[in-house]
Amino acid sequence: MNRLPIVARRIVLAAVCFAAIAGAAVACKQQEGERCQTDDDCDTGLVCNQATAQCASSSSSTAIDATTPDFLDAELDPDAPVDAEPDAPDA
Length: 91
Known about the structure:
Largest sheet: 2 strands, antiparallel
Number of strands: 2
C-alpha cells in the first residue's frame, strides 16, 4: 500500500478547506435591502447606497437621499446691508 505521508494529507486537506471557504465567500453576495459597505458586497446589478448602507438597484440609488422643503419656516435677515464695509482689510 502506498499511502500519503501524514504531512501531505494535512496539506491536501488544508487546500481543500481553503478552496471551500474561498468559494463560499465569493458566492455570498448581499441581496437588495441587505447591509453593505462597498459595491463589491452587493450581488450583480446592485450597488451599495452609502447613505443607508444597504444594497439597492443602481436605478434607485441615483435618487437624492435627502430633500429640502419648498418653504422656509423663518424669515432670513441679511447679515449686513449691501453697502457695508468689508469685515477685514485687504492685505
